[in-house]
Amino acid sequence: MSTPTVIEITREHNPFPRDGIWTGADGIPRYQDLPDSLVALLESQVDVRPDAEAVVELGGDRLTYQQLWDRAARVAGGLRAAGVERGDRVAVRYPAGVNWVLAFWGTLMTGGIAVAVNTRSSAPEVEFVLKDAGVTVDLAPQAALPDGEAYVEAGLGHADVAAMFYTSGTTGHPKGVPTTHEAFLTNAQNMARCLGIPADIGPELRTLISVPLFHVTGCNSQLLVATQAGGASVIMPVLDQPALLASLATERITFMVTVPAVYALLLRRPDFAGTDVSGVRWVGYGGAPIAASLVRSLQEAFPSGRVFNGYGMTETASIMTVLPHDDAVDHADSVGYAVPSVDLAIVPSGADPALGELVARGANVTSSYWERPETTAETIIDGWLHTGDVVRVDPAGRVHIVDRTKDIIIRGGENISSIEVEIALIGAPGVLEAAVLAVPDDVMGEKVGAVVYGGEETVDVDKVLAHCREQLADFKVPQYICVASVPLPRNAGGKVVKARLRESVEWGAPLR
Q1: How far apart are the C-alpha atoms of 80 and 488, rounded to whole Å?
Q2: Burial of residue 271, with CB atoms counted within 10 A of its CB: 0-12 exposed, 13-18 middle, 19 or more buried
Q3: Nearby residues of 416 by Cβ (< 8 Å), 6 or more positions away
Q4: Domain spanning 408-504 has what CATH number?
Q5: Higher-confidence position of 173 and 64
């Protein structure tokens, strides 16, 4: 197998500062002065501002940094008493809120690995993750938080794995992504630099987390960014638009991130006009395409804020690129420039060196998938992570995503594996063949569409949907189904030719 040609993306016009970054013999750019671990980061904030608010659950508890530390240490003690040792995996399945945060920090304090499980997953999906990760303790939604004598593991360092998030891929099964303390710390530093968050901002930074904590955006690019700054994470257990708007003023929110669909819905609300948004300084979005008109509306709606687009993957501990405020409207189709400590490059797909698959390397980029050596070898080549995204790079070094080679559907920021849905469909009553495609949607970006073929047997769409609901999380269940009268088109290798389906399918009205 030949080594792919890699053409690095220039930083000549990149606006983000790179001071304090060094590159070792392995070619990986790293920050020089990061804390030893996430636990050390949290401890430093406890030392400096013990009485400052650290975590707020809307409608629930509020914790200062000292309270967060003390309670998380008791969770760690309880986990130790339950048999968790350094390197063991602990499943965190609580809803977004204080308990999730305590379970996360408590696991890290034991030296364990927090496995962030999607709370919207079906029972079979959860069981797969628990078994695949080899979980020692499962903190299920109804389970009490562990409690014991305070404990903090000594000697944690950059190379220790802190957590594992799962990502869907073309195999149809989620893959565990081990994420080190250094990767988390690096991502937080990249966020701070790209957004221009002052190092001394402290409690003034208050981020509203309305996206799930089991996603890298909510955890890595909000919760941990707030911790690094000494600010507060204000968490919404369930997305509630009126409560979100009200909290902007009552919780003195300065930093918010959500998907474009949510912003579009918020701006359409009659009560938005009466909402005090004067304190909001950073307005982030990502996870789905966004129209320039919506970006312009956001800039007008949040006059004190600076908007930004962020792009990344579970494998990169969140962001790889950021599109800054000044470029946001004129280059709304771009995801921006490489963040300071990530090298980006193109593997050209043809003669154009600015068009091809995006690859990345950096201290926040995973070095492997959990117990998947073959997938690791296919995806990480000579230190470069192959993202599976086909991109175009403009002369300034901005990245524009033009296709997704992995056939992932992005519905309102949720990544959905088309093959996973196809596997569920194939098992449905009367279905012989199935293909899943992205259906463009003005609000959600994309929705799940399915083309099914049942041969001579009549396909009962209601039964197909009922089967899917038993096998899949609700957001993965197709919202459009087309029943084909002839077998699906396939190539010589037996694979469905989805390009032909996209050209010929007429979806009609959504089913729900």
Answers
A1: 54
A2: exposed
A3: 168, 408, 409, 410, 448, 475, 476
A4: 3.30.300.30
A5: 64
Select from 64, 65, 125, 117 the least CA-distant residue to 89.
117
Range(s) within the chain of domains with CATH label 3.40.50.12780:
7-402
Burial of 171 (0-12, 13-18, 19+ CB in 10 A): middle
Region(s) of the chain under CATH 3.30.300.30: 408-504
Gap between the Cα atoms of 329 and 136, Å rounded: 48
Above 90 in pLDDT, residue 77? yes
What was the pLDDT predicted at 259? 84
d(CA 212, CA 336): 24
Q: Are 404 and 358 in contact (CB under 8 A)?
A: no
Q: What is the mean pLDDT of the chain?
A: 92
**Is the domain 7-402 a CATH 3.40.50.12780 member?**
yes
What's the confidence (pLDDT) of residue 492?
40
pTM here is: 0.84
Q: Which residues of 226-264 are buried (b: 16+ CB within 10 A; e: fewer)?
A: bbbbbbbbbbbbeeeeeebbebbeebebbbbbbbbbbbb
On whether the CB atoms of residues 79 and 88 are closer than 8 A, the answer is no
pLDDT of residue 406: 59
Q: What does the block give as tokens for 276? A: 């005090």
Render pLDDT for 388-421 as a digit per residue (tens, 0 to 9): 988 899 999 999 987 666 577 888 888 787 778 8
Q: Which residue type is seen at 443?
A: V
